[in-house]
Amino acid sequence: MSTEYTVTETLDVSGESCPMPVVKTKGAVDDLSEGDVLEVLATDSGSLSDISGWAETTDGVELLDQEEDGDEYRHYVRTTA
Prior knowledge:
Sulfurtransferase TusA family protein, alpha+beta, TusA-like, TusA-like_sf, 81 residues
């Protein structure tokens, strides 16, 4: 994980499949303040493209990083508005 940001909150969507990781990520982001970083833990490999695509098309969020560790995927999303 990069040292350029600090995780504010962690959302565990392990065991959830499309579209729930994105739906729950959006819900969690809506409750954060500007500049907060949400760490999303997922087991759905599709979450890599789903969360990336969602972040690219959504105002007020920035995808900072995505990591893959075996069957676990970590996504780091910062609120920008």
